[in-house]
Amino acid sequence: MRDPSGNPLAGLESPIEQIREIGRHFYSRGWSTGTSSNFSVVTSRDPPRILITASGMDKGNLGKRDFVLVGDDARPLGDNQPRASAETWLHVVAARQPEIGAVLHTHSVWATLLSDLTADEGGFWIEGYEMLKGLAGIATHEHRQWIPVYENTQDIRSLAERIGPQFRSPDRPPFHGFLMRRHGLYTWGVDLAAARRHVEILEFLFECVVRQHQISVAANRDSI
Structure pTM? Predict the structure, then answer.
């Protein structure tokens, strides 16, 4: 319920505290350094309402008012709110899916390197790792997970319009996240806890993939 002062964040103390804790955790892991990353959670479906971190905020030290409540048009609801992240449209497009209640975007070293290594192929497969079972709906390590990679761009709305249809594409393999080249990871979940788990699982797997690549390159060099 909104308070009489018109504060759009009134009544959202619980999700704000959850996101602040996620920010501290991701900062401590090196996944959200500087003012990188943005995090969001759906607070209402009808009408659509999304709580998202404001632009340029230190994710390791988020304040209680470092957030913006936006609608389905990615615009802030109410006056005197801070500026929303430039990437809000990506959160909005994902949150239109009924099974997605939270979206988390991180900037780890492993994700950044891997996105550059595989961008020319449009993405990469991860398979055979036990940790894949941490992704929603995956019951076996024999699963094969496709991670698409998109070119980085400043035209985020255009990118969001390209990615949106992929959530419902019958031809797409299970879709748990994507990378932007030399940028970072976007993943999601039914709620903040699930989205956080997906970040942890995917970041672990990205490091495994890059380290395996390094081992293979070194082994091939030594065999010459």
Answer: 0.92
